[in-house]
Design goal:
- This protein is about 35% helix and about 20% strand.
- The protein is built from 15 helices and 15 strands.
- The strands form 3 sheets. Strands 1, 2, 3, 4, 5, 14 and 15 form a 7-stranded mixed sheet that branches.
- The protein starts with a strand and ends with a strand.
Length: about 400
Amino acid sequence: MSTMLHRARWIVPMEPGLPELIEDGGILCNDKKVIKVGFFKDLQRENALITHHEGIIVPALINAHIHLELSHLAVQQSEDTNLWQPGDIASWIGSLLAKRQEITDPDNARKNSQKALDFMYQQGCAVALDIGNQLESKYIGESHTMDVHFFLEILGLSRFAQDKAFAVLAKLPDSMNATAHALYSTGTDMLKALKKRCVKTDTVFPLHVAESHDEITFLQNGTGKIRELLEQRDAWDGTFAPPGTGAVHYLENLGLLDEKTLCVHAVHVNSDEISILAKKRAKVCLCPGSNRYLGIGKAPVEEYLNNEMLPALGTDSAASNPSLSIWREMRLLLEDHPEVDPVHIFAMATQGGAQALGLEKEMGGLGPGKKAVMLLISCPEIPGKDIFQYLVNAGDAEPIKWL
């Protein structure tokens, strides 16, 4: 097995115990694993194949939330914004479901999903957590260079819908990951069953949590636009008892919060709920691009960081985001929260994603024993103090090369 020493002007390890930046650094690795990271002068070895690179070497990025099977709805959905107003997620969901029913060409849908994967890989994304409603969607990423973790999304709030969902769940092999859609679309019995299944299979439990004001209104008193949407789709039978709480308190009361629960979006949470998430060591995935497009608000990023939580980043689907670039998510997050240190934002796209997917021992940084999955980012000559500002603001403006 060949050993190689990669040299660059800047190394960004994103690894506990290593500096944030290493100038004129090197990464010694074999074909698959990182052996050592440090200054180039300390790592030179006669038997190593030395390659010289200009620019910045960084860990590959991680997309912790995407719906690949919706990729073919991007253009159609962007043309129909007259059907919903910013902030009205219920109407957006209704229009999305209507558009989805109109699609009759599954081959086109698969091609668009593959294009979405290709784009993310070209942008330096190595891993994605993909959520889909269709069993066949598990095949989207099976033969791709990217590592795609597919989860079948289960819905069912009414008693009849839950019974149907339980029948589907009973037939799934343990090898098929399954999770809930959201607290307003999945009944309590199904939520508990899905979490129990994830514990049994030792997998992450990702679900949409506190994405909109409408969701919180529905959970608190069972009214509002979410209720209207459920009634319109014959998904409401009155058996669901609103918990009278916010989303995080509801999850806690059901016993569903632990270190493998991944709360996606997590926009409309208060300080007490953030403290609960931190205490339970639950994970959070932020989707600023989707949130901006839908007009549903900004996540309390500073409070998460102040509670020693490092969120992950996700793009959500092309139906609610004009770009599936994690670089753009970083850029938008900094625009929305200019007081947040760019170091933390870049950590969300790497370390945070790895932690959210339970891959922190393998990915998210460039430390000894980690997978040698890394990128070379070209950049102009800039001082070290500006490297993270550059990466977060313009990381995808220059060529990205897989090493």
